[in-house]
Amino acid sequence: MGVHSIDAEDDQFAYRYDTQLLIDRRDEDLDEDVISEYITEHYEGNSLIVAGDEDLVKIHFHTNEPWKVLAYCNTIGEIYDIVIEDMIRQANGLQG
Q1: Which of 19, 23, 46, 60 fits a 20 to 30 Å CA distance from 78?
Q2: 10: helix, coil or strand?
Q3: How far does Cα 20 stand from its chain's mean position?
Q4: 93 — alpha (psi -120 to 50), left (phi > 0) or beta?
């Protein structure tokens, strides 16, 4: 069992962590377009999906720094159902 190193040229593993979470509205309505634009402009990653409505938004994002995405999302609402999976470990047959 070898360890797969991250190679930025290898698009499959350029961003190691599959980051998924839900954001529940706190005080203000959630705007999926604003959230998507913010994440795109401030964090490196790919495969971004932001879907929902003004009360609940689901985020899916591949990044090497999931904690930064979580910190941002926590500023705009209550975050829960957080899943961060290591796609390199999964590719090596390990629990992600």
Answers
A1: 46
A2: coil
A3: 5
A4: left
- Which stretches of the chain are DSSP H helices? 32-42, 66-76, 87-91
CA distance 26 to 38: 18
User: Does pTM top 0.70 for this prediction?
Assistant: yes
Q: Quote the pLDDT of residue 95.
A: 86
Nearest Cα residue to 52 out of 37, 72, 71, 30: 30
Count Cβ atoms below 10 Å from residue 6 Cβ, excluding itself.
11
Is the sign of the CA dihedral 38, 79, 22, 12 positive or negative? positive
Does 85 have pLDDT greater than 50?
yes
Q: CA–CA distance from 28 to each of 36, 44, 56 (Å)?
A: 16, 26, 11
Q: Which residue has the higher pLDDT, 84 or 5?
A: 84
Question: Contact, 96 vs 4, CB < 8 A?
Answer: no
